[in-house]
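Weekly modeling sync, notes
Attendees: S.R. (lead), two postdocs, one rotation student

Agenda item 3: backlog of single-chain predictions. S.R. asked that every request posted to the team notebook include the full sequence so nobody has to chase files. The rotation student volunteered to paste the first one in as an example of the format we agreed on. Action items at the bottom.

Example entry:
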Amino acid sequence: MTVRESRSVRSDQPRRLTAGIFDVDGVLLASPHERAWREALLGIADPERFTTAMYQACVAGKPRLSGALAALQALGVPDAERQVAAYAERKQERLEALIGAGAVSAYPDALRFVQAVAVLRWPMAVASSSKNANGMMRSIHLCSGQSLLDVFSANVCGRDLRQGKPNPEIFLLAAAELHAAPAQCFVVEDAPAGIEAARAGNMAALGVARHSDAAMLWAAGADLVVTSLDEVAVDELSEGRLCRRPT
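Predicted structure, as returned to the notebook:
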């Protein structure tokens, strides 16, 4: 374990947090995005080479075409640029089929954390480049009778933006719609590109390492990395600080 990985939180957080921005796939939902990318490779490259580590490092958090190109290049596919559009379309078709078959679920720790932040009466936004995010969140029903999507006061998922992550545009748009200064927002992400985007937008970056990828999230600049959102100290968060809960 490196010195950086052993830290519970970065020491350069001269900010008071008052709002939260959440990525969807891998943070709130266990969705079939990775599976769809892998299965859509059949006939293009060996799907078994498309590992979870590759998905997290190269594809997760990026807009569809950018993710498709990154995957094909990482796999060394000849004429990757020429095959991007077809691969991205096949992935979307496979994803829609998997969603239709019910291959979407919410992470229990994410639901608990969202509800804890809601109790603080902080504004929250969801921000994902995926155009499927809204439909997936609507399919998750809470005890209150609301859908998961209903909990958030701002929703910038699936917007047509000029630049995708790691550019901070989507998070800056979310902060604006929350009427919050970027420095007062924390962003919850599971992908290095998302962590980089949060940091570029002058926001606190909370990494969720669900795939033994904490080192990549720390390297991307995360302020705090946890394996479960239950590890975040909500009492400290209520004071505007992003910290790990004492063990």
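Discussion: group reviewed the output briefly. The mean pLDDT is 91.
Action items: rotation student to repeat for the remaining queue; S.R. to check formatting next week.
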